[in-house]
Amino acid sequence: MKLVVKEDVFNFAEVFTISRGSRDKAHVLTAQIEDSGATGVGECVPYARYDETLNSVRTQIETLPETFTRTALQHLLPPGAARNAVDCALWDIEAKAKGKRVWELAGLEPPRPVITAYTLSLDTPQNMQKQARKNSFRPLLKIKLGTPDDMPRLEAVRQGAPFSDIIVDANEGWSADVYADLAPHLLRLGVKLVEQPLPADNDDALMDIERPVPVCADESCHDYASLSKLTGKYDVINIKLDKTGGLSEAILLREKARALGYGVMVGCMVGSSLAMAPAVLIAQGAMITDLDGPLLLAEDRDTPLFYDEEGVHPPDAELWG
After folding, report:
1. Dist. CA 100–CA 104, nearest whole Å
2. Which of 10, 63, 99, 254 falls 20 to 30 Å from 124 in CA-CA distance?
3. Which whole-number Å values give the CA distances from 284 to 111, 113, 116, 137, in the listed order?
4. Which of 96, 233, 240, 243 is catalytic?
5. What local confidence, expressed as pLDDT, does residue 19 receive?
6. Of the residues 96, 142, 144, 243, which is catalytic?
7. Is 256 a catalytic residue?
């Protein structure tokens, strides 16, 4: 088995800003596995919030043994970007070697298109209203917030897109007081869900704050083991393969979360269609899907995912799985 990892860079269509900073390029790592004439690929997006860099993730992948199984991989690497790329590449190569699709191998239902959110970058209220108006034809908009002065932004987006459903992502940027002040207005403005309003290491305050709209754990939820710390604080969990460490753990996390009564959101870091492809399988039946990474980029893989009014479609086998 030959494992190679390389960096790929994709330009954003526009500068993308969240509460932690701005970017104009997506730097991703692509893992490629060759074995017995078949080739499998997987993509990950190292994320500084989780102390990941391109170099650190590359090193994790390159220090794997020469031969290992997908089951062994779950113990060789921790949850995170490195394991995600390799896990997805292993699923892909098995599908290609056996002439089947990944959902058949995993015992999942055949996937269908799913409506995805489209993310509006953090900006001034005026510019966010312009973004909202430009994308008001989309059924679901996600707003990046996370400052003490977000109310004008929220009002502006609602004015720009009066008929779209809205979800809000604070990226841990609010205090308990700011969230408590905003919460009633979220309901008034028709917000369907709030993602990670408080820092993950200070989210116990959510147990004492009324939640008029569902609150989703993002930075507070990585894998199955995370669920035990979420009780009484969150209503929904956001499954991202770069957090779970791949499709294998994502399948388990979805199953366990639903059994515990959590709603499921499926999200992404900003990467190419290759990163989104396995997540489309997890998004089946999800409460919220947020797999818009390729829509935010100016360029993509040679065989990209297809997006239309039905949402994001399952991947072609030439792309993945």
Report:
1. 7
2. 10
3. 6, 8, 11, 23
4. 240
5. 64
6. 144
7. no
